[in-house]
Amino acid sequence: MKGNYLKEGLTVLCATIILLLLLGVVPDFEIKYKHFNILSDILRTDSLEKESDDKSLMETSFDKNEEELLLLAKDSLGGKPSLGSKLCNGEDSLKVSGCTPSNADVNTSVPSDGVPIEDYSPNKKALFSFYKALQNDIKTRPVRIGVLGDSFIEADIITAKLRKLLQSRYGGSGVGFVPIASPAAQYRQTIRHTFSDWTTYSMVYYKKADWKKFCLSGFYFTPNKEGASVSLKTVKNEPVTMISFFFINQKHTKIMVSINNQPSVEYQPESSESVQQLVFSDPAIQSVSIQVKKVDGFTAFGMYLNNTSGIYVDNFSVRGSSGSVLSTMSKELSMQLTQHVPYDLLVIQYGLNVIATDKKWYPSYKKLMVNAIQRLQECYPGVPILMMSVGDKGSKSAEGITTHPGVLPLIEAQRQAASEAGIAFWNTYKAMGGEKSMAQFVDHKPPMAAKDYTHINYLGGDKIAEQLFESLMKEKKRLNP
Asked: What topology is assigned to 173-308 in CATH?
């Protein structure tokens, strides 16, 4: 007698669908499974799990990738940073208020008086020299801020608005630093940037990299064929008066340069193991195109677009970085670059690539970031450093999209790192509005963040930049340089 296979098959299918629907609404809690939903095409909140934002596709986890990276780079450091951590009641945790991270950061809206800069320097004057430069040097030389971060600031997000606000008050024109190549070039709104035939070496994607060539930007570039090129064009009719091109020319590369679409001029820099620069000056530079020939032994870093005075905010975003790899920076190369381009303030923004659902304490990361900050202090002695905490990140729960459980512990670890290193600290999470603020950014009309509930867009970046600008100005008033 034949069985009713159709009926049995339908029964199994219906049971499977019901099971999948139930799993789709189970809260995360501590269950370690890949959260999914078979209704992802029609339910808005499932975009959190899809990671649809292009920038998130290349991001890597902190635990394996960067610890392995630091071990590989130990020769350039003269030893590796300590990766150990203390135990508290058998748990890997920070010793903050016993073993429990502070929940004081929970906040549903931006404080009416803004988000203060927390000063952990010994004399409580961490940013004093920066404000002194704004007061005394701004009319005679470029005053520079370098902002180092991950994909949260990629494509000039946050830094574009911060630059605009500062230049409106203190003068200056131009975007500052632009790398030779960038995965976000097509999205960046503050410069038109095209390039071809370059090989990119990154602090994070480090295969076959030369550690002696990593500096603030986190990248260096080599031509992979004759005629490798890069072109930049300013936007909104905002010309600059000076462009500086930085490179190492170990052999006999020829550099063809066209300014404002004029006929190219050939340059033959001397052979050297040290950093060199070509400087181009004109009352109104709106575009530059560079092509290299005889490319063997040539390494390029990027270009600076600015005037001879005013303030500049340089965006140094490295997709996928936790920030700990800053401890692999070359001190020698940094000192060479400083002779040409000194900095008055360094801002570090990281954290997206550290947060993990099953982690509630981050002592190893705290120690790695202390090492990274100390390396920055060695490479840029006397330059003040401000750490921005990680911002809010959405996580699906029974209550909908809430703040990811790793955010507050990570902020506490970052604050502890700032305190141990004696630098300034600023709470990006509070500036966004605190708890569940990423969900509010996504739901805002128009949206201020992507539906991965991780990355902000330009509108979201503008809000954070405005908060940071106000905090910087209030701190200036406090220090009264």
From this structure: Jelly Rolls (2.60.120)
